[in-house]
Amino acid sequence: MEEESVDLGSGQVGDEFSADPYINPTLLSLQSAWYSFVFTLGVIGNIYIILTVWCRKEMSSTINWFIVNLAFSDLGILLISLPAEYIKDYFSWPFNKLTCQLFVPLNEVFFCVSIFTLTIITIERFRVICRPFKPRLTEKKAKIVIVLVWIVAYLAVGLPVSFLMEVEKMDSDLKCVLKWPGVLQRRLHTCFIATLVIVPLLITAAGYAAIVSTMRKQSSRIRARTNSISSNSLTFRRDMICLQQNAKLIKMLLLIVIVFWVCMMPLAVLALANEFGSINITTKVSHGLYAFCVALFFSNSAFNPIAVYVMSSELREGLYRLFQRVLTCFTGPILNEL
């Protein structure tokens, strides 16, 4: 007997949630408007981050390449997963089975890429700040790690799920659904994805707690040295600048991590509760809660570039220069005519 899916990592917590024949037009309108806003804001923001780091050599660094990788995974969610999920939930599947197998499982791949990338950033920052004498990750090695992250994410969650995707007729519509051969396989998959959520959460929480503690000790040591050396000395100024730069970077990364987990955890909890709890999935409250969690899941892809922009003075400066160039392109010909 085949079982319907419960995909914790993707926008589809369960096809049974979206199998309701009655679609609330108000909920659909609100969700469509929000998705349009998230799509527009997220695509523009993530493309801007990618182009800024790619085109400005002074911004080329290990951390920035990992942030670019986050932007690519967010773009994948917005350009591929969001439209596929929206169509799958509310409309008849207009494509063939191969398209269902290729595109719908990519949501979990992008999700895992984001989790792995955030975890690697935490480990890399921990090594730099808490273990300063350890060899640092070079840009070349960072790019290799990024490629491996995509390969591992696809082989771990994308490829196995793709073989289980089916296009079935429900009522008068075709639906792209994930079919499990049994309950045991489905629950093992749910537990596996839950592990991919919980373990990185614990690693990032412990990592940033250690980083913040180490930086506080470093700050105390540097300030204590002001009693023995001049605050205008080169060594003191260099140490203070380094500490301030690290503090700004950690604040930005912490904001990204917090936004990510706030957006992702509700869907994860709902999936686990649906699988191992006793949720009545036929109620309007359940469908509304599912719609909210999925919307929050996709919203992270638009919130990430906002968090990076707010916390990064380099990106704000880059955006200012971009506006200047655009303004010059439009005003230059007019001034020449005058």
Automatic annotation (TrEMBL):
PANTHER family: LEUCOKININ RECEPTOR, LEUCOKININ RECEPTOR-RELATED. Its main location: membrane. It is found in: Membrane. Pfam families: 7tm_1. InterPro entries: GPCR_Rhodpsn (IPR000276), GPCR_Rhodpsn_7TM (IPR017452). Gene3D superfamilies: Rhodopsin 7-helix transmembrane proteins. Keywords: G-protein coupled receptor, Membrane, Receptor, Transducer, Transmembrane, Transmembrane helix. This is G-protein coupled receptors family 1 profile domain-containing protein. Residues 45-308 form the G-protein coupled receptors family 1 profile domain. Belongs to the G-protein coupled receptor 1 family. The chain crosses the membrane at residues 33-51, 63-82, 102-123, 144-165, 192-215, 253-273, 288-311. PROSITE patterns: G_PROTEIN_RECEP_F1_1, G_PROTEIN_RECEP_F1_2. It is a multi-pass membrane protein.
